[in-house]
Design goal:
By secondary structure, the chain is of the alpha+beta class. The chain has a single domain, classed as Clavaminate synthase-like (Double-stranded beta-helix, 4-Layer Sandwich). It contains 4 helices and 8 strands, in the order E-H-H-E-E-E-E-E-H-E-E-H. The strands form 3 sheets. The chain has a 3-stranded antiparallel β-sheet. Strands 3-2-6 form a 3-stranded antiparallel β-sheet. The chain is globular. The termini are far apart.
Length: about 160
């Protein structure tokens, strides 16, 4: 743990989606965002050299949670390059608007880390960020475990399984 700071901020992307005006929900529906480390700033100095020129990952801007079926915004202003299907200027304008709307005050919290803490969150509907308020010469080391959703299994119809 660093001597000071090092907290993590969390915010609900369900709340972010819910706060979007109808025109933005309609505009983003069915569109992908192109995401990469460094985003539009191109700040990739912390990446390994072989990872700096990777093509962006495309993700739906509006996600539907696989278990809750609730919609959430998929957005990270530090990683997004553009929104597919929009002219560059419109994409930039929408990104700026999303940056302003993504953090809803009543849907955010911060965790002040203590040695031995375990925090569990669902990356499918939350965004998180280190506060960046700790001394740069001190380490902030965390262990991360990810539990991935199982791949969709093709299921034979019940009649083929002799279902009940």
């Amino acid at each position: 743990m660093p001597g000071a700071g090092g907290n993590t901020h969390f915010s609900s992307m369900y709340a972010a989606y819910g706060a979007l005006p109808a025109r933005l929900k309609q505009l983003l529906a069915g569109r992908n965002g192109a995401f990469t480390y460094g985003g539009r700033t191109g700040a990739q100095a912390l990446l390994n050299v072989e990872d700096r020129d990777r093509p962006p990952a495309l993700h739906p801007m509006i996600r539907v949670h696989g278990e809750t079926a609730r919609k959430s915004l998929y957005f990270d202003p530090g990683k997004i390059l553009y929104i597919e299907g929009l002219a560059r200027q419109q994409s930039d304008e929408v990104i700026e608007e999303l940056t302003e709307k993504m953090l809803q005050p009543d849907a955010a919290c911060s965790h002040e880390w203590q040695r031995g803490d375990i925090v569990i969150w669902d990356n499918r509907c939350l965004v998180h960020k280190a506060a960046g308020d700790y001394p740069p010469d001190e380490d902030r080391i965390h262990w991360r475990v990810s539990i991935k959703e199982p791949l969709a299994k093709s299921r034979a119809p019940e009649s083929a399984r002799g279902g009940n």
